[in-house]
Amino acid sequence: MTTAKVYLIPSLLGTSPHQRVLPDYNIKVIESINTFVVENEKSARKFIKQVCPEKVQADLEIYILDKDTNAKDLFDIIKLLDQGKTIGIISEAGLPAVADPGAQLVKVAQEKRIQVVPLVGPSSILMALMASGMNGQNFAFHGYLPIDKTDRKKRLSQLEAESSKTGIAQIFMETPYRNNQMIDDLVKLLHGETRICVACDITLESEDIRTRSIKEWKNEKYDFHKRPAIFVMQAN
User: Which of 52, 67, 187, 208 would you label with 178, given CA atoms 20 to 30 Å apart?
Assistant: First the structure.
């Protein structure tokens, strides 16, 4: 039986001090291994250097697993598991394997009966839900909504209807430079009593989390342009 493990290592959501959001145990794990599967090498090395400044960067084995990883490269990464190597998976931001390509490798590890160890860290999705005041018992995450305006409006109407019928809190994301446009679309499309939470810059000094009804958003002053945000919807 292999002694290898796959550690799911949360990274930071921005430039906040790592002591605020990462337990000491995470740092010990990072210190103990040198093989990492990451979404972006530059940001992963920067993160490792920040939390473990004494770790020798030249000793690190970095493998890329992103949305463009082909079958051959994925096979090369899988061979690490077959060799019995303990590896750490690091996402670009937040939790690996949640809305993240690392899920592909976790699936293989589970199939091979290799121990997968999730570590504690910041999740923008759950933290937004926590702070929204919406239904934490019944919720759904939809990732990015369609870019096409017609398809996006159709999808937003579907999510509002589902939330109204079932009480499910609907969670989704937008590319940061389209955040303000998303709010404009929500205001134009949804019912006045539907509530929207915009959770922006979570864990950062500039954190801004607001829940307002659609009719309140019409008069709200805001600017979330180019700032990472999560949207939570709850319809009556």
Answer: 67
Q: Which residues contact 223 (CB under 8 A, 6 or more apart)?
A: 180
Predicted TM-score of the model (pTM) = 0.91
Are 132 and 229 in a shared domain?
yes
Helix (H/G/I), strand (E/B), else coil: 64: strand
* 102 contacts 96 by C-beta, under 8 angstroms: yes
Question: Looking at the structure, do residues 113 and 140 belong to the same domain, yes or no?
Answer: no
Question: What residues contact residue 39 under an 8 Å CB cut-off, 6+ apart?
Answer: 64, 65, 66, 90, 91, 92, 100, 101, 102
**Which residue type, as a one-letter code, is found at position 134?**
M
- In CATH, what number is assigned to the domain containing residue 155? 3.30.950.10
With contact defined as beta carbons under 8 Å apart, do 169 and 159 qualify? Answer: no
Same domain? For 114 and 182 the reply is no
pLDDT digits (tens, 9 = 90+) for 20-43: 999 999 999 999 999 999 999 999
As given in the structure block, the two tokens for residue 56 are: 């020798």
Q: What is the 3-state secondary structure (H, E, C) of 153-216?
A: HHHHHHHHHHHHHHCCEEEEECCHHHHHHHHHHHHHHCCCCCEEEEEECCCCCCCEEEEEEHHH
**Measured at the alpha carbon of residue 29, what is the angle toward residues 28 and 30, in degrees to the nearest 5?**
90
Q: Which residues pair with 196 in a beta bridge?
A: 212, 233
Look up residue 123 and give its two tokens: 């999740």
**pLDDT digit string (tens) for 186-211?**
999 999 999 999 999 999 999 999 99
